[in-house]
Amino acid sequence: MRNNKDNKLKAFIFFFWSREISGEKLTENESALSKLLEDSALKDLDTHHYNQTKRQILLNIKHQNDNSNSHTHFTLPKVVKFMSAAILVMLLSLSGIAVYKTYFKPDVYFAKSSGLKVSLKDGSIVNLLKGAELTVEKSFPKDTRLVSLKGDAIFSVAKSKIHPFVVEAENFNTKVLGTVFKISQSGNKKSVDLYEGKVAVAYEGTALSYLKPNQVWTNFGISRTAAIYSKKTDEKTGKQVTVIESLSFNEVPFGEIINVIKEYYKINIIYPNEIASKKISADLKGSVDDNIDILAFAVGLEVEKHNTNTYTLKK
To answer: What is the secondary structure of 47-98 as a DSSP string?
Structure first.
């Protein structure tokens, strides 16, 4: 395992030195990184050992050049630069890996057996629920504050009008400027529950969805499906109820759409089995009767309503 890390780090270092040797100018950041790696690897090196190693590498370079049929011309600056890189790579061990972990390897937070509170550099707070994993790049925060999430978490994002905060979840992204929200992921079912502020949810195969406080985005566990519903309090009973604001299906099997409608509205819908696999697209925002009429029209059927909760779709 360690050899893989060493090889990657060596390749990373030689990339910088090959740029220098070829005459290409390093960027300011590249120069700083190469200097950082060199200082870290050489700071505890014995001077006598360093000089011996340097002489041996120089002899090897001369020997290879003498026996080569090529006309490669090694100028003194190039030899010095190549020699420095070779010495550095030879001496990379635990100190080099430590540099990689400190300055390049992303920070990973895992709530193994209980919840875990993570404080980010920008002041944002992430409460990971049990089993969740958060990955934060060393470059965080920059122009876009990007993190990756597996599992469920509640985010309290520090406000910034110019630096969006993006959570890359499993197959969908949530983008905010500063707000409090919860992301839930259970198998194929995904949801974003907004408590305050505003968020935009991007899910493959659907249009961008915008949430307001007390609204929830979900895909109902179905690909290319997006729904937004509001959480409200019933004036008569005082109980919390959900009201569908929009339902969007993009080339989704008819049977899966009907199952969503039946489950949400607690109704029974009878339709011909042969059209269950037929894929359709539909944007539903009206009443239950209006939505069922739209779905029936999409597959060329008529609606017959038997009572308050039973519908038959027929030719």
So the answer is: HHHHHHHHHHHHHHHHHHHHT-SS-----HHHHHHHHHHHHHHHH-SHHHHH
Task: Give the Å distances, CA to CA, from 309 to 163, 220, 260, 269, 270.
Answer: 48, 21, 15, 8, 11
For each of the chain's 315 residues, which pLDDT tens digit applies? Answer: 445 545 555 555 555 555 554 556 666 666 666 666 556 555 555 555 555 555 555 555 455 555 555 454 444 454 455 555 555 555 454 455 555 555 567 899 999 999 999 999 999 999 999 999 999 988 888 888 999 999 999 999 999 988 999 999 999 999 998 999 999 999 999 999 999 999 999 999 999 999 999 999 999 999 999 999 999 888 888 888 888 999 999 999 999 999 999 998 999 999 999 999 999 999 998 889 999 999 999 999 999 998 888 999 998
Sign of CA pseudo-dihedral 160, 162, 168, 169: positive
d(CA 66, CA 59): 10
Phi-psi region at 168: left, alpha or beta (left = phi > 0; alpha = psi -120 to 50): beta
Token pair 């993006």: residue: 166
Is the CB of residue 160 less than 8 Å from the CB of residue 177?
yes
**Tokens linked to 7:** 């090889």
Nearest-angstrom CA–CA distance, 229 and 216: 5
Is the sign of the CA dihedral 13, 18, 21, 24 positive or negative? negative
Can you give the pTM of this predicted structure?
Answer: 0.69
Note the Cα 206 to chain centre separation in Å. 18
Tokens of 38: 């060199």
Report how far residue 220's alpha carbon sits from residue 258's, in angstroms, rounded to the nearest whole number.
Answer: 12
Q: 278: helix, coil or strand?
A: coil
